[in-house]
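Hi X.,

You mentioned you wanted examples for the new student's onboarding notes, showing what a folding record looks like when two proteins sit in one file. Here is a clean example. The first protein comes first, with its sequence line followed by its structure tokens.
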Amino acid sequence: MIQIRIPRTLLLLALSLLYSNCHEGEQQDCVITEKHANEGIKVLVCPLDVQKELYEVQTYYPTGELKVAFSTRDSEIIGKALEYFKTGEIKKSTEYLNGLKHGDSFTYDEEGELVNYNYFYEGNVLYAKSKKDINGRSKLLETYIPLLEKSEVTNFSIGDTLSLKVGLPIPDSLLKGRDIYFGFGVKPLKLADSVIIDAKKEVYIEGDTSIQCSIKLGQSGVQLLYGYIIDRSDMHVFEPFEDTILVSLPR
């Protein structure tokens, strides 16, 4: 992961200096906002379009090689952020929108081989694919993580309706023709519970469309709310989740 830890005060100071120089008619030069202990450049901010508050930020290794490069607008990262190995090879490439990861994120090893891919939507990872070495053999692992909105309320009464909103706004190419459903349900909590695959309800996931789901609560006590993404073509379950709610008898 690209670790962007530039103090906000330093970045804002550099931007204010650049903006001031522009209005004073001076040449728009890059500003060093931080140095390493050996006096080498650590953080460099360069103007791209001062009127639009668009700048490029670069960070460097203590030995002088470029480490990270990204653009900012209104102090938020936009576009593609790149992280490099000391050799100059790309280590990570991530798309940003308004300061949030949004779109493709690729991670490579030093030989240039792709080892991890994530797809983000407004800062949330919705699809992940990675290569893992399992028992000496390389295996491709992938999963889907839906956008899930649920009530912050955790105390209910019998007869109440629990509502969920689920979506998976990813490119069709990442669905790969799979028969993707979201399964969910509520059942009494038991210590023996593990991954549950007997959903009370299932809804078909249709790309950019968010689906409103609901289930009526009919039992009292501590209940387990569970859900998962499932590919009905091969019954493969992706990224199950569990949460607890308290259901009381009607007053």
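Then the second protein repeats the pattern, sequence line and then tokens:
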Amino acid sequence: MIRPGLVSVTFRKLTVEHIIRLAVEAKLEGIEWGGDIHVPHGDIARAKEAARLTREAGLAVASYGSYYRAGADPPENFGPVLDTAEAMGATMIRIWAGNVSSEQADAPCRGRVVADAIRIAGLAAERKVALAFEFHDGTLNDRPDASRQLLDAVAKPNLGTYWQPPVDMGLDDCLASLRAALGRLANLHVYHWQGYNRLALEQGQDRWRRYLELLSQTGREHWALLEFVANDDPDNLFADVAALRRWLRELSKVNRRSGIARRFLYTGRKHERDGSHRQPP
């Protein structure tokens, strides 16, 4: 199942209360709360209040969007991140794979990121929290092959990756990138850009329908989290949500029909094998 949600840092200037109101009015299901502005690392009182307001509004805390950089930040900085996520009842924390790109990172740099990721994944597992790397330039998790190497090196079951379409990458390459991540994919960050111009999501429907169709094949629950809107205007959120929800409804219908067809085919073959299928006299 794919659930529609919002990344709170889409609207950095808005309050927690305002963001919750927008999410409810737009008919979203959850919010990824950012750890820089809305729910800072270590602010437990604020985390509990944001979580309370979120759930009272009928929304879920989809994840905690931290800015902890494995292998680059002081190790003691992760404790407040984990405490904050736990206070919110978040079962997923987004983290960053260092601060150097996979092409520029040397062996010691890679080693620091991997060692720290192993450490913090262990700490998170003790509290039944999962981690996922941001898929982003300037980190070790910036390309499909680099992502696979990183996750293989860490080899922790509670550590996965987010995915978002790299800027100006062609559709076929984006699909290949997403396909490579599916086995360890946590959530998507959803937006449509041309260069660094933020456009209406509807303009990217040919791409996003394909991405969502591919994502649905995992059989797991994922969040499709809207991040950034045209002109940073909250009014533009509603059209983006409407497009995303429409695509998800259409995909759900297709998947249900496919599931019915598969079950019918399996049942028919079973009847043929065991002789239980009989033609009427």
